[in-house]
């Protein structure tokens, strides 16, 4: 953490605000790992490798021009295309969820219905939303809002 950045505590992670972006960091102090290679989504890679191997094996050795071979290759190709598209989606979602450009934030909505937490929604110019949860006892919301206002004076803050 350098001199121009500030750190704020959320319920389950930290926020580092530098001059132009917000970095979301897990509690151990490092950036959140890529969701594609996490334990929950590692099965995508395994299934993708198995499907690719089956398709290559069918083409090179076992292809006998039967209707069942064409159907098998077609279904496996559809599955592989689905897995590739899902992987690309996870990579882009991960990038958005951990790095937010401060100048792209157009509105901040704060919901304080819960007696222990504030739910803060960051809304960008392209209408994408990122929800952050602050604890009320740690008094991190007002310094966070001041840090955002200092770096982006055009942001609107609404209390719901």
Brief write-up:
The chain is α+β, with helices and mostly antiparallel strands. It has helices at 42-62, 67-98, 141-151, and strands at 6-9, 13-17, 21-26, 99-101, 105-111, 117-124, 129-135, 156-159. The chain folds into two domains: 6-25 and 103-159, PH-domain like (Roll); 35-96.
Account of the protein in words:
- This protein is an alpha+beta fold and 160 residues long.
- The protein has two domains: 6-25 and 103-159, PH-domain like; 35-96.
- The chain is 40% helix and 28% strand.
- It contains three helices and eight strands.
- It has helices at residues 42-62, 67-98, 141-151, and strands spanning 6-9, 13-17, 21-26, 99-101, 105-111, 117-124, 129-135, 156-159.
- A four-stranded antiparallel sheet has the order 1-2-3-4. A four-stranded mixed sheet has the order 7-6-5-8, with no helix packed on it.
- Strand 2 and strand 3 form a beta hairpin.
- Helix 1 (42-62) packs antiparallel against helix 2 (67-98).
- The radius of gyration is 22 Å and the shape is elongated.
- Mean pLDDT is 81; it is low at 32-36.
Which descriptors would you attach to this protein?
160 residues; alpha+beta; PH-domain like; 2 domains; 3 helices; 8 strands
Query: Helix and strand string, N-terminal first?
Result: EEEHHEEEEHE
What is the averaged pLDDT score?
81
| CATH architecture assignment name of the largest domain | Roll
Count the domains. Answer: 2
What separation lies between the terminal Cα atoms? 33 Å
Number of strands: 8
Find the CATH topology of the largest domain.
PH-domain like
Count the DSSP helices. 3
Q: Please give the CATH class of the largest domain.
A: Mainly Beta
Range of strand content:
25-35%
Strand arrangement within the widest β-sheet reads: 1-2-3-4
Radius of gyration: 22 Å
Low-confidence stretches: 32-36
Principal-axes geometry comes out as elongated
> Fraction of residues in helices?
40-55%
- How can the largest sheet be summarized? 4 strands, antiparallel
